[in-house]
């Protein structure tokens, strides 16, 4: 169950925000839902997206070309700022047409002479990973469409061969290789279709393991290694489309729920010329282990494979020889609770060593591991969680990473020596308190830096490293800042909540014209699960939804309970294991009581709570388990019974159903629905392929059984984010706002 925030972050390849229109002042400075969600007047500007050149001397970006109704790809020299058009929109006009291709993504060949263009995209589950591909030869100017022998808009994950002479891609669950000179297309797998999936993944692998692109070229271009999934035996879930025709359309898809069978997944190697696939004989049941990662080791014929067990507390790392198909287990990472998969592997010193991320010592650290696994030494040290890796600079000898050991609501750039010597150095200047993100050049001498906090919209600039000297300002969003300030809203105030066992971080938004002598109703915004957190010193578009509610006279508060994704060490994050929904709702309830006693202006008789996805489940747990505390709640796109959700997510944090029957029961709000006393509004999209509408209907049935009065709103053929189709978002927010007004 991803948070509402992570649901919205689904742009495929953008490292920096797409440019948007600036704020426009209307309604005499008053914030309205219509302006936020219907007129969409509140946006800050971004820059890019950008890509660093391979030599680190410059960066590529898009710029509009009105003459040819498209976008140019331009290169800027980092030092001088000199601009060069590398690929004009004119060169992307197909023969016989008068309009440039709409570029959704692009990839350079290894020698930078060809450009692979992804266009005309279609959504597959959450992301637009299906569409059409074209290749532009920059020397000849020839623009050629690929895959003319396959069905249009069915191509996925196209990529150049290492020498740039061919392109491989997936179409309708099989893998093809196309020669760019002759145009010859070779189908190298033929059993895909039905329950067999080649080169891509089923729903749950994509959603929970971030697996989408399911094949890899060998470094010499002779072979392709790929995943194959057999979905036979997975339970089929059915969604019903009742709104687009006079008869319903049934939409089936394999979806493994808690305790049920997974796809049988294996990894094989096939010649890029075609032929029989050879399969790695990886130990363990193919349906009760997850092959979470696979890639060729550079300059070799070996692949590295990561195998998670079903409990997801053991990650076995295998080296597989694609010639002999022999396997060697070089590393096994274990945890008493659960493990996460990290994409921070970089091979160093002529592939003698690789970097590895682990929490085995209680903190999320980066390690240096030898190819045989015998040497395993920490690169980052101390009580510091590595939030993310920004750059591993082998030549300079440093790893650059995001961390925040002193203020868990903020993020800064640090660096540590790859040899493990010395201490962590903070690179971000101390005056930039808030969120700092970086897109660092391969040589770590330059970075696109984005800074923001709760009162500062994104400020985007080019900086030199490690001095962090600003070289060029791209966007400061002064207009957005000015318009926001003119609304006269109160900024979020951060504070601590001591609930006895632990001190938690929280923020508060007070109404305009706040009077300390008055009593105010409070709305708690909650997420509470391991996938995300809510208490961040971040701009977040100004958090206009909560600012709007505060403008109506509510105090808005959010608290990060134990178990949320906060860089406070493994113990803080993982104490939620086997008790999702139990410990977190207890922390939230204790925090609500503590806050009521801390602030005299909080009306403890008018406490509301709301959340989306995992936050919707947490809302229900708080409302049902602590009915004496909360009087009103709104739960959106929630799981009512944890057994209804997918097995990879739920079993990772709750363990196996047969070993934790009590935990699954006590963590599921449906089992406490009979305790409802206050006001409840439940909201769901009927086409939610993530958290199914079934969860909504089962809770509805249970509430009726206990004669509990409640309100409900269904959005036909809307998915987990409830954003599709005309006027949906505006209607949803109006519905929620009116419910608060009527009941709190």
Strand content: 35-45%
Would you identify the regions where 5 or more consecutive residues have pLDDT less than 50? 3-26
CATH topology of the domain at 488-743: Rossmann fold
Kindly report how far apart the N and C termini lie: 27 Å
Q: Supply the helix-strand structural class.
A: alpha+beta
Q: How many DSSP H or I helices?
A: 12
> Kindly state the mean pLDDT as a whole number?
94
Largest sheet composition: 8 strands, mixed
Outline type: globular
Question: How would you write the strand order of the largest sheet?
Answer: 36-37-39-38-40-41-42-43
Strand tally is 43
Query: Roughly how many Å is the radius of gyration?
Result: 26 Å
> Could you estimate the helical fraction of the residues in percent?
10-25%
CATH class of the domain at 488-743: Alpha Beta
* The CATH homologous superfamily of the domain at 488-743: Alpha/Beta hydrolase fold, catalytic domain
Q: Would you identify the CATH architecture of the domain at 488-743?
A: 3-Layer(aba) Sandwich
